[in-house]
Amino acid sequence: MSGSVYGNIFRISTWGESHGKGIGVVVDGCPAGLTLNEEIIQDYLDRRKPGQTKYATPRKESDSVEILSGVFEQKTTGAPISMVVMNTNQQSADYSEIAGYYRPGHADYTFDQKYGFRDYRGGGRSSGRETIGRVAAGAVAVSILKQLGVDVCAYTRSIGSVSIEYKNCDRKNILLSPMAMPDLKASLKAEHYLDQKMQEQDSAGGVIECIITGLPAGIGEPVFEKLDANLAKAVLSMGAIKGIEFGSGFLAAEMSGGEHNDNFRYDNDGNVTKLTNHAGGILGGMSDGSEIIFRAAVKPTPSISKTQRTINKTGENIDINVKGRHDPIIVPRAVVVVEAMTALTLVDMLFMSMTSRMDNLVHFFHK
Amino acid sequence: MSGSVYGNIFRISTWGESHGKGIGVVVDGCPAGLTLNEEIIQDYLDRRKPGQTKYATPRKESDSVEILSGVFEQKTTGAPISMVVMNTNQQSADYSEIAGYYRPGHADYTFDQKYGFRDYRGGGRSSGRETIGRVAAGAVAVSILKQLGVDVCAYTRSIGSVSIEYKNCDRKNILLSPMAMPDLKASLKAEHYLDQKMQEQDSAGGVIECIITGLPAGIGEPVFEKLDANLAKAVLSMGAIKGIEFGSGFLAAEMSGGEHNDNFRYDNDGNVTKLTNHAGGILGGMSDGSEIIFRAAVKPTPSISKTQRTINKTGENIDINVKGRHDPIIVPRAVVVVEAMTALTLVDMLFMSMTSRMDNLVHFFHK
Amino acid sequence: MSGSVYGNIFRISTWGESHGKGIGVVVDGCPAGLTLNEEIIQDYLDRRKPGQTKYATPRKESDSVEILSGVFEQKTTGAPISMVVMNTNQQSADYSEIAGYYRPGHADYTFDQKYGFRDYRGGGRSSGRETIGRVAAGAVAVSILKQLGVDVCAYTRSIGSVSIEYKNCDRKNILLSPMAMPDLKASLKAEHYLDQKMQEQDSAGGVIECIITGLPAGIGEPVFEKLDANLAKAVLSMGAIKGIEFGSGFLAAEMSGGEHNDNFRYDNDGNVTKLTNHAGGILGGMSDGSEIIFRAAVKPTPSISKTQRTINKTGENIDINVKGRHDPIIVPRAVVVVEAMTALTLVDMLFMSMTSRMDNLVHFFHK
Amino acid sequence: MSGSVYGNIFRISTWGESHGKGIGVVVDGCPAGLTLNEEIIQDYLDRRKPGQTKYATPRKESDSVEILSGVFEQKTTGAPISMVVMNTNQQSADYSEIAGYYRPGHADYTFDQKYGFRDYRGGGRSSGRETIGRVAAGAVAVSILKQLGVDVCAYTRSIGSVSIEYKNCDRKNILLSPMAMPDLKASLKAEHYLDQKMQEQDSAGGVIECIITGLPAGIGEPVFEKLDANLAKAVLSMGAIKGIEFGSGFLAAEMSGGEHNDNFRYDNDGNVTKLTNHAGGILGGMSDGSEIIFRAAVKPTPSISKTQRTINKTGENIDINVKGRHDPIIVPRAVVVVEAMTALTLVDMLFMSMTSRMDNLVHFFHK
Question: Nearest CA to A304 among B251, B279, B288, B263?
Fold first, then answer.
């Protein structure tokens, strides 16, 4: 079990290494009749494309997606959707040196321990390029969610010490900012912060926040398949994520029940509302109909040019300087991956929820 | 899918409501030949038993476990292990009032939204008693891990604003402290803090820390089934958990790569060591052979006697005072549940990892 | 993985040995709002109860089921339904002798090979009593199917050489016949056949036929999760089943395409009909809206009093006469188990099918 | 859930339509260190290639496989193995006519019922070309099994009325015979039989037999995950299969226990043997160490040129003659697919079985 399959009812299977022939994904369980084409996927994929700013790896890759199956006359057929992005700009030579030692903060050592050896070219399966499959599949999930009225919006909440206050999702600014930070002043400050790190041959991390709107109440299963539990797995399954928190998150641990409990009230139209949203929109593992909010901590990029101490495979302690083209920060490019993983999880959980009530079932099958 | 099944190869199925006939679990996939009896399970279960201190609900429950299958002459047979704790102290009358309204911070509203109605007696399936099944199964997992040299140790890291520094797992003090805090001075401070909350008819939350030792390197699968991703799901699947972080966690987001990267070194005996452990023992989703550390945020108990605002099912905004016997804090009792969920996850991931190398497989089947 | 969990969305977990404390099942994923009580389960369970005729083991067992969770005021709540039948009439002494040798046709040898030892009391987990969990869960599935207009009807098609022609399911006669054979004349002939086998201290097998009506077209997934593939697994997962065939089955292998293809026609009301049903109601792994028919071959009961040759665990070839109370035929009692496994599978596949079309999803979530 | 994912620990995800851009498969969970290259896959794939004899569709397709990931320097890395066969000889024009009506014996009607419309080009996902993904993945499974000493051998047991007696697997003759019938005289008779069917513009079916040798005793899980249950699902998941039987199969239903039970005996070297093998090598769902034998019934090819009655989508009863290039028999080409599905299932069940005993686990992890 290499664990490259994700989801239960809506299930994806990703494959590909950064320096192999390509990267791809098979989406199994997409409903028939969804409008889909390569442009929809490409638009979404382009949000994680490298080479767009000086803060991302200068590799030029077209990352051009091809749909190989499952779509007929621009509609999904219910059959598996196979999508592939061929690698066009690999320079394996760059990586030959790292075959012999273990880069700190990378998975080189654990891969060798697990499999006995590794495909050392560019991180192989733990490369950031692995996320192409996630994002391509995520674009399908986002298209489904759109039909169901659900929106997922992620953005950069902080980079290093530069942080913004929570605000409503402002997609225009998120896309305008090279940091994916909707507060453009803060975004500029983050750029300065990053410039400094780059001068120091170092790197930075940050926090990504994600907001889900339009999800009906009652999504998520009350015991092991809680909505937050599944979102946590989804997001922690990304490389470099070191933590996740929902609503007030770790702050909740310092609050009293009286402070933390969100009180219910009917509004003037008789709709159920909550006076606060410390819970982040999830109660007992199920969506409560309000905005769902979570934050994920992204560690600083481990690839830095600075001298580091490590070991090689022949038993020596050595000092290294990792060469190659690396992002000084992955947060802005990871934003769309958080969205993708969230969307994939939501589709699966919406599908799971369909059988929770007998009256709905009778209605569905007798329609 | 009500989602009461957990695990892939080592799989448990829990059942039971706080005020039904009983609570139980079926463990499927336990290897044959493990020594097991009711005493082993009971000892572990007793760590979550209520009524032990003034900080826990004063209900007196024996919570006495019975093994119904899967064990023959004190050895597991490879067949499913069914365990049950019959409920003996239910007073459903206590709960009749809450049937008509939604308690803030509880899952009453989301249950009704999902299922159309709910078993309102004591929280039904979202009651803390649901964890009995997890802990009973966890005791089996812990027994397996012990045979494999793996230890899981959780304790209270903070209650409200009272926090301790990380220290090696000191089981004796953890069990001595009514707060499950190995620093007994801090434990006393936490008791004072809690006394105050109780006087205010309020409640508190906290942080649980968990340390795994003895896990070989290479456990966890590199893409979706990362070790940290699965532990995150495991822990977030518990009620009241609002966040999780590994190693430096959210602090990592503010560190630079040079600060965060753990440098490798061979020690004098030629063993691989890391000079720091900011990663919390996991690289690329796989254990790196060092200590695994994570922390989980526990929200304050939602059941408080203080007046709260909420809505009832007949369309009115009302004020309520929740009566009944409630824990002013669940952190100390949740410690063993974190351990149990961790152990269940580790067994599953150890089992998954067995097929990662062809040479191991040839050796296994040709032995 | 002991493999005692069945199903994907509607999932059951069975447990218990013939001579342990009891037998049970946990049903996870039952929709809320289904009317359920112990009488409904018991009525279905009684169809597999031993001691009803001279052709079944004379053990007297009440096999009285208790529902421990998941039902509140006679309605399912969406929580797991735990059901148990306590064993009341075990005489383990009967079985002590067989601990030392391997009964031909039984799983004694394979259990020892797999697990290193076995719970030798009455077959342990491979006893016919294991099916109690399946049938109790099957009763829940049948209740769901009834709400959705689907009926499953199985009966004895042949016993040894005594066979009946296919006829419409005649439940009254099926229940009247101790052979579960709706043709009562043939049933009497089968009884005579069986009397003879019993005089010879021998046993008999037979064929069970099962008919599904009311299933909408399009149930089953077109590749690996074909309806027939899943029914085959369901039925072959019962002990003693040695084969399954759908529609014309093995005869199809001798037919030509022109003979086997079922031609379509609109009837006078414009409904789609087929002029024949050689396919058994399944095309490309999906139901075609007509009657689904399959047959399963049941081997003769392996427990016979006749002298047999076998080996013991101390390395000797020996002759044995298996004592104890055994059914000379299991076919009539297995009929309800075939129904139960079929019903469990159909519920799961109906649930799976709900996400096949985008228009249905939009309708479902926007209702 | 379109159900194009197969397996639990060793898991494949297939995709592609007969007239789309290509057909492929992703294999997840292949152990690292297995020797693999395109030649190994191609050799196995070539056994199902069309255009080899006059009894197979005269389409010329190179069916040339490319490995896109998971292999580094001719060794599997533990990462997903993505394999693709691009379609090179599609003539969609051939199929435009069938868009409007439902071919008898095909899945046209059920696809439309399930998904609302269908990709009508060449059967889409229910085309025989879908098996390319299965066979490519099967080649990987066969390579693993070879390392573990397990062999899977299938061949044609009968075509129409021409049948051979069971014999040991004679691979040379199986590959020599255009019918995949190891008895070359019978093979010639079958060719004559087929010539006649072709003259009659009709088609034929047959029976495939499969033998597994070298499988250790104790593989298969005793309840729902029985070895025979999983093989049945595997084989019935192929199009056109209408039944399966193990060992004596349906004949067992007419035998007595005394006839059917396989008696055990130690041979002169102290090895366990059975005097007969009516059980087909499986007892209680677990392999007993002897040869495993099963047979599958293949229906006659539904595509025939003969006039047939059917309906069109505009409400009319019509007569049709299906044009296009079709195999008059699929049995010989399906032989390797039976092998592939069997191999895929065996790898999964071998992997599942690794955790059945605590002593094995301790040995594995403390090695």
Answer: B263
